[in-house]
Design brief:
The protein is mostly helical. The chain is built from 18 helices and six strands. The strands form three sheets. The chain has a two-stranded antiparallel sheet. Strands 3-4 form a two-stranded parallel sheet. The longest helix is centred in the N-terminal third of the chain and has 37 residues. Bound molecules: arginine. The site of arginine has 10 residues, from helix 6.
Length: 455
């Protein structure tokens, strides 16, 4: 393809480092779509004949079907997907194949192909996030009243509702989704026709190819168009944050499904056994999702480092971009699908959750709030009195609601029976009606809002 000024072919080891066909063959459908759009535009502009464009299109569709059926023979000597496709096109249609590269270069071609490929990953990720949000909202709906412990420092803090906990992840994933949607809108400009770096003297119509390939517009600066990889970096940074969220949730599932917690049962479909311990049921799916953030954030670090310090415009360094995005996209989309399946048939264990919610003096804040409301105590004083009551309960080895009124009155004489209405976990969550609070009533309102938003 470029041998005209060369006296010898590449060293075999040079071919090993130079060829990208081993991975960029994944972009064959995008490469062929780009070439069909480009040659149709060349014909419309009178740069090539209509019959050449028709031959090229027919030939490219044959190449695509060969690739799809697995009969296509990829060659490392032809470096990359662009030259593999063009070379096969030459074998099929002959001379017109040599005209398809008029007014473009592999630099705008690879940017176009990779953008089209990555754009599909944006779409698949947005879909995957929507599906996961849907099953979380269903869990929240079913468990709007279910009480569980809320934690800070992984120490029981205050009772919350299961539904509220599920909806916390819906909020996180909604931010992820909006980041992907936002970045997708920004990336949707066509590099095609920027040619090698400076544009072309041929009277091409970049609006036409942009429109044909589903881009909103052609990229306005040819130098930027061939050297921009922000669309990949943004995908990886959105993916890293999303994978971080999935990893946090996965960690909770690993903890919750343990025999010590028994908060949830993960279905057999998303668990594995041990080859030596017959009793074991391990949360491998959750553990793997927890770990995927490593390679996904690793991809972001890799591509940031590859791009750092590259002068305008294209440098071969940029060939190293694809595997990072391929790997991150594959693993993020897989993680979303697995998480969706696992959450859809995960069973929260209501009695265990409620019992755990009552441990650790979790309604101590409710007691302090009661002192403020009923006795008009400043909160700081109420905090102190409650601390003394917690110490008393701890000394007696019981929970706060198990203290007698007489015991309580030794700490503060004005405490009345009414306090016992506020020490139960159900009362505690029901009272937290402040906007964004955990009360079942709030959860039901948020579930309704999300159902509408996701419909
Ligand atoms: N395989 C190359 C890549 O992935 C395609 C572009 C090559 N362009 C060039 N001027 N060598 O980046």
């Amino acid at each position: 393809m470029w041998g005209g000024r060369f006296a010898s072919g590449p060293n075999a080891i040079m071919e090993a480092i130079n060829a990208s066909i081993g991975f960029d063959k994944r972009m064959a459908p995008q490469d062929i779509a780009g070439s069909i759009a480009h040659s149709a535009m060349l014909a419309k502009q009178g740069i090539i004949t209509d019959s050449d464009a028709a031959e090229i299109k027919k030939g490219l569709l044959t190449v695509l079907s060969e690739i799809e059926s697995g009969t296509f023979e990829f060659s490392a000597a032809l470096e990359d997907i662009h030259m593999n496709v063009e070379s096969r096109l030459k074998e099929i249609v002959g001379e017109p194949a040599g005209r398809v590269h008029t007014g473009r270069s592999r630099n705008d071609q690879v940017a176009t192909d990779f953008k089209l490929w990555t754009r599909d990953q944006y779409d698949a990720t947005i879909q995957g996030l929507t599906a996961l949000m849907g099953v979380l909202v269903d869990q929240a709906d079913a468990g709007a009243d279910m009480v569980m412990p809320g934690f800070t420092h992984l120490q029981v803090a205050q009772p919350v509702t299961w539904g509220h906990h599920m909806l916390a992840y819906v909020e996180m994933l909604a931010r992820d989704r909006s980041r992907f949607i936002d970045a997708r809108a920004r990336m949707n400009e066509s590099p095609l026709g920027a040619a090698a770096l400076a544009g072309t003297g041929f009277p091409i119509d970049r609006d036409m190819t942009a429109h044909e390939l589903g881009f909103d517009r052609p990229a306005a600066n040819s130098l930027d168009a061939v050297s921009d990889r922000d669309f990949a970096l943004e995908f990886l940074s959105c993916a890293s944050i999303c994978a971080t969220h999935l990893s946090r949730f996965a960690e909770e599932l690993v903890i919750w499904s343990s025999a010590q917690f028994k908060f949830v049962t993960i279905s057999d479909q998303f668990s594995t056994g041990s080859s030596i311990m017959p009793q074991k049921k391990n949360p491998d799916a959750a553990e793997l999702i927890r770990s995927k953030v490593g390679r996904i954030t690793g991809s972001l670090m890799a591509l940031l480092t590859i791009m750092k310090g590259l002068p305008l415009t294209y440098s071969k360094d940029m060939q190293e971009d694809k595997e990072q995005v391929f790997d991150a996209a594959d693993n993020l989309i897989l993680s979303l699908a697995v998480m969706t399946g696992m959450i859809a048939d995960m069973k929260p264990n209501a009695p265990e959750l409620e019992a755990a919610a009552a441990t650790g003096f979790s309604t101590a804040t409710d007691l302090a709030d009661w002192l403020v409301r009923a006795l008009n105590m400043p909160f700081r004083d109420a905090h102190h009195v409650t601390g003394a009551l917690v110490a008393m309960a701890e000394g007696k080895g019981c929970d706060l609601p198990d203290l007698s009124l007489a015991d309580m009155q030794t700490v503060h004489s004005e405490i009345t029976d009414d306090v016992f209405n506020f020490l139960g976990v159900k009362n505690s969550v029901a009272s937290r009606l402040s906007y964004g609070g955990t009360a079942p009533e709030n959860v039901r309102a948020q579930v309704a809002r999300w159902k509408e938003a996701l419909a």
